Amino acid sequence: MSIENPSKERIKEILENAKTIAFVGLSANPERTSYQIAHRMQEEGYKIIPVNPTIDEVLGEKAYSSLAEVDEPIDIINVFRRPEHLPDVAKDAVQTNCKMFWAQQGIVNEEAYNYLKEHDFEVVMDLCIKVLHAVLLK
What is the pTM of this model? Predict the structure, then answer.
């Protein structure tokens, strides 16, 4: 089985309806891509939830060490981790109230994709949330 992302129309609908994005692997370093993308999505009106065990806070938001610790609803789980870490992040994701998993551009893992699909997740891989937001919602 290969990875198949939702249609552009469906991705637009997801982005229009989402309010909260958990950023797994979000860095506190403004030079890092994860920080820049989370900051931009925050500027676009989304509440961001940093998930990174090495930081306490970023972009004015309390950071959680894992998805399991997040105590509020999540609309999108956006992942900035290397592909080999995706199966573990996927296992954490299925323990949340979220059903939307987004792996950033350049990040693909078929094992994680299949696991998430078996657990009724919508899955996007190898696409940048910031770019698609700019293209589809502007």
Answer: 0.96
